[in-house]
TrEMBL record:
<dbReference type="InterPro" id="IPR016176">
    <property type="entry name" value="Cbl-dep_enz_cat"/>
</dbReference>
<dbReference type="GO" id="GO:0003824">
    <property type="term" value="F:catalytic activity"/>
</dbReference>
<dbReference type="GO" id="GO:0031419">
    <property type="term" value="F:cobalamin binding"/>
</dbReference>
<protein>
    <submittedName>
        <fullName>Lysine 5,6-aminomutase subunit alpha</fullName>
    </submittedName>
</protein>
<dbReference type="InterPro" id="IPR015130">
    <property type="entry name" value="Lys-AminoMut_A"/>
</dbReference>
<dbReference type="InterPro" id="IPR037086">
    <property type="entry name" value="Lys-AminoMut_asu_sf"/>
</dbReference>
<dbReference type="Pfam" id="PF09043">
    <property type="entry name" value="Lys-AminoMut_A"/>
</dbReference>
<feature type="domain" description="D-Lysine 5,6-aminomutase alpha subunit">
    <location>
        <begin position="5"/>
        <end position="511"/>
    </location>
</feature>
Length: 534
């Protein structure tokens, strides 16, 4: 399949160079900033969990305590470690005492910086060793049980009740699914805390909590033993708690995380500064945990035309690739997103879909590309919908996609029933089996319709990326260059949670992750508008 479309390698190099500079600009901007979500994530990795008497998560209690005293610019770990050294207590007990009102972290005597850093390394290594153990356990299970062939069959459960999700998730695995995605309850991405414990009510999905992760992981391990293959668990670490949920997933051995700041900016109106800062740390965690991320470029085509805006999907894939590399995430864990959203009534729409999918495959050869099904142009005609999904499946196996989110013939009518999901799985299995090696047998006609379409999209993506490089990503987002959606640099949800790092700032987990991932320390500076110098 390599290089079946004759794409200009110089154009691909130009796109990558522009995307790399865009990503470096973002990285310089975020280097001097942290967020409340990152600081809560540090506390969770230190072992702080649970809630206070009012059911407020303890990480939130401690962060609010430090914010009220104007102390958070030094980093949450700095203050908690000082208390641990002074009182000889674990981080969990420190948090419980803060919640009870018996400890004011601002009154704790400061220890020598060398002692703090030594304790920080000890705590960080202990927390990250738990993550590493989960990664090794996953590798052992896959080696023993095996796994499904790519494209992985990815299906959704979304009942609101985690225990019903278990029933449906196991059912889907028995039907042939390789990845079970538990959709989050509607609006969870906009709340600035992570709910606690097992939940049995949700709207449009089930709350992402650490206990729910634990319950679902146990269930999929059980059914994996039954069916004789490893079943992957997916959830969502986008939103205002992006890094926290990444950490919880790493601690509970999730395998796939939807992790894309651009999605949150464009479709949830989360402040661009906040979520790009959060994304960098969350991707470091996902990288170390061996978690495949999924990005959300497929959503661009729900608000923009799939023919006219195809280049924005490719441009965003280039940017997401470079941002991920700066967080140490290897290509093998980059589930870059795209979608089959061209109007099915358009002549030669299938050829354009093949062009986009094949182009993405060739440009990102090591990425397990996540291919999204038809949704925008689905109707109440379930028979036509089933055929649309079948053509989507054919494009996927022809072009060697990595993750196939299965379409449902009742997509436009209601939340799919269990039998709808079984039909979707059977549809994909039939086509994947019958056309498994089709891509190895076909060549694309030089200068034919498919090749010309791919070249056109690539050229427009290069032009867009070089313009974004010139003006900066934040200005591009303000101008509505992605998904035809405009967002403000100082607007949206969560800006209040962005802080400048103080001179004493310390995050032992970022330092340890950078060491383990082989990343350099950040350098450079930027002005407040995100036009960068460094």
């Amino acid at each position: 399949m390599d290089h079946k479309l004759r794409l200009d390698p110089e154009q691909i190099d130009r796109a990558r160079r522009a995307a790399a500079e865009i990503a470096r600009g973002v990285d310089r901007f975020i280097s001097s900033r942290t967020t409340v979500a990152i600081e809560r994530t540090v506390l969770r990795l230190m072992g702080i969990d649970g809630v206070d008497s009012q059911y407020i998560p303890l990480p939130n209690v401690v962060i609010d305590h430090l914010l009220d005293r104007g102390l958070l610019e030094s980093g949450a770990a700095t203050w908690v470690i000082h208390a641990m050294l002074h009182l000889g207590l674990p981080a969990q007990t420190i948090a419980e005492q803060v919640a009870a009102g018996s400890l004011d972290l601002g009154n704790v005597p400061w220890a020598d910086r060398r002692e703090v850093e030594a304790k920080g390394r000890e705590v960080a290594r202990k927390g990250l060793d738990r993550v590493r153990a989960n990664r090794l356990h996953r590798d052992q299970l896959i080696k023993r049980l095996g796994e499904g062939k790519k494209p992985y069959l990815y299906v959704i459960v979304a009942t609101g009740d985690i225990y019903e999700d278990v029933v449906q998730g196991k059912s889907a695995a028995r039907q042939g699914a390789d990845i079970i995605a538990v959709i989050r309850s509607t609006g969870q991405s906009l709340i600035d805390y992570v709910p606690y414990g097992a939940t049995r009510e949700g709207y449009g999905g089930t709350y992402a909590t650490q206990e729910n992760f634990r319950i679902m992981r146990k269930a999929l391990d059980e059914v994996g033993e039954e069916v004789g293959r490893y079943i992957r668990l997916c959830n969502y670490c986008s939103g205002l708690c992006m890094p926290e949920i990444a950490a919880m997933g790493a601690l509970e051995r999730l395998d796939v995380m939807l992790n894309d700041a651009l999605y949150g900016i464009l479709f949830r109106d989360i402040n661009m500064q906040r979520t790009l800062i959060d994304q960098a740390f969350s991707r470091m965690i996902n990288s170390y945990a061996g978690i495949m991320i999924n990005t959300g470029e497929d959503n661009y085509l729900t608000t923009a035309d799939a023919v006219e805006a195809a280049h924005t999907v490719l441009a965003s894939q280039f940017i997401n690739e470079q941002l991920a590399l700066l967080s140490g995430l290897p290509p093998e864990q980059m589930g870059l997103g795209h979608a089959c959203e061209i109007n099915p009534d358009l002549e030669d729409g299938l050829l354009m879909e093949i062009a986009q999918a094949q182009m993405s495959r060739q440009i990102f050869p090591d990425a397990p590309l996540k291919y999204m099904p038809p949704t925008k142009h689905m109707t109440g005609n379930i028979f036509k919908g089933h055929i649309q999904d079948a053509m989507f499946n054919l494009v996927s196996i022809l072009t060697g996609q990595g993750v196939q989110l299965l379409g449902m013939m009742t997509e436009a009518m209601h939340t799919p029933h269990i039998h709808d999901r079984q039909l979707a799985i059977e549809n994909a299995q039939y086509i994947f089996n019958n056309a498994r090696h089709l891509g190895e047998e076909l060549l694309f006609r030089p200068d034919g319709r498919i090749e010309k379409r791919a070249r056109h999209v690539l050229q427009k993506a290069v032009e867009m990326l070089e313009e974004v490089e010139r003006i900066g990503l934040f200005t591009a987002l303000e101008n509505g260059m992605l998904a035809d959606v405009k967002r403000s640099f100082t607007g949206g949800k969560g800006l209040h949670g962005v802080l400048d790092k103080g001179i004493e700032y310390y995050n032992p987990f970022e330092e340890e992750l950078r060491n383990r991932l082989g990343l350099r320390q950040r350098e450079g500076s930027s002005d407040e508008r995100g036009l960068y110098t460094g």
